Amino acid sequence: MTEVNDAPSWTAGSSVPLPSEFGYGGGVGGEGNGGGGGESEDWKYHAAEFAKGLAEMSVEFGRGCRDVVKQSVLTKNSYVMRNFGEPCAKVCARLRFLNEYLPEDRDPVHAWSVIFLVSIVAIAALCVNTGQDTTAPLVKRLYIHPPNASRILLPDGRHLAYQEQGVPADRARFSIISAHPFLSSRLAGIPGLKASVLEEFGIRLVTYDLPGFGESDPHPNRNLQSSALDMLQLSYAVGVTDKFWVLGYSGGSMHAWAALRYIPDRVAGAVMVAPMVNPYETRMTKKERSRIWESWTSQRKLMYFLARRFPRFLPYFYRRSFLSGKHGQIDKWLSLSLGKRDRALIEEPIYEEFWQRDVEESVRRRIVKPFVEEAVLLVSDWGFSLSELKIQTKPHSKGIIFWLKSMFSQSEPELMGFLGPIHIWQGMDDKVVPPSMTDFVQRLLPGAMVHKLLYDGHFTYFYFCDDCHKQIFTTIFGNPQGPLASEVEDQTPIEVNSEEQEEDTLSASPAA
């Protein structure tokens, strides 16, 4: 009891002694509480101990798995040993000579296990790397060339850029005006067309930039009727006095259709190569629309849907592709599915050079609005139907007076629609403008002459094919006759009768 009573007692206000093994210092202001160095060292110590413990547990876990495999799988009575034990033993006996190449202090089983696992990992890594092309292609940037186009001033104050090919205006037997498709320019025309072919047939080819493309000024309220009027004004400005032919290729054909509808009196005929129509045309049957849409990629269907419903989203995709300032492939930019011959053509250097130059001219202004307008025009209401171009008798007006006139007059019935020839060339392997679209056009225009190309796609017949170009011109113009002869003024002196000349001389002399 005396020891207990003699023990020091705790009273209020006195400090509590803490054992040194808890990590605290001898006093409140001791070294153990000064600064944070001790806490950081303790954290590192605990992390290192935890890593060591985890490593030891992993090793023990691996040994345990090995023991389980030895006791269950590698025993003599197991299924694996009964079926594969003897063959494996024979193989190991034959390969035992390889152990001579191992270090003497290494267990052969352990060494070959490590070599086998490392070989599997190396082969897997090689397979992954060879499956992907790790070489990054060189990205070629767009180059904007100096302006060099001929331009006309339209009545509304806009400028329209154009390009002429072939024979001069005074020697041309035939004149052709062509509007380019989407993401193209006046430089396209008929790709690869030689000047000698135009000279042979006496053709003058005029191509122009659509509003906002190339060097042409944008149109504030653009539609297909204004496109036809631009073509009309261009024909007057370049001196095309007679009727001219219109050429439409792919998406540019909708401007040729508009010319047949709005200025038919100025158009002699139409040449359509893989002509595009509105994929949302209301006169399409469900089966026709399904056959057309099934040949397109999902991304292209999405672009048509956005152009029709949400055109505000199109600039996002355009700025990431052809308006990014870099070159790319046409099938990726326009989401095209191509056949074998088309794909082989676009990979040729001659096509790549042409395509890059044409795109550079098309996006010269770096304005996204004209491209959105062109995409929206294709999938919107055109303001007319192709069935209106069909040749048919004009309906008579109602009333007694018109009925009496029709009874006593012997005049022929008046025709309406486009009265000129329409020639369509369609590749049967075309996946950009599928043949089912031309079948729909032929149903609406039974008078159109369709030339089906069994083995051609979207590009192969129209691009860089001399025989194809000659075949087109021979079909619509006949055999080549060359350009017109230039008119030379007759400078032969006029012969005057000698008697009349003498009388004129006497009458002109003064009286004596």
TrEMBL record:
Region span, Disordered: 484-512
InterPro entries: AB_hydrolase_1, AB_hydrolase_fold
A GO term for molecular function: transferase activity
Xref: Gene3D superfamilies: alpha/beta hydrolase
Residue span, AB hydrolase-1 domain: 202-462
Signal peptide, first to last residue: none
Transferase keyword on record: yes
Domain of life: Eukaryota
Acidic residues bias locations: 487-505
Keywords from the named record: Transferase
PANTHER family noted in UniProt: AB HYDROLASE-1 DOMAIN-CONTAINING PROTEIN, HYDROLASE, ALPHA/BETA FOLD FAMILY PROTEIN, EXPRESSED-RELATED
Protein name, as recorded: 3-phosphoshikimate 1-carboxyvinyltransferase
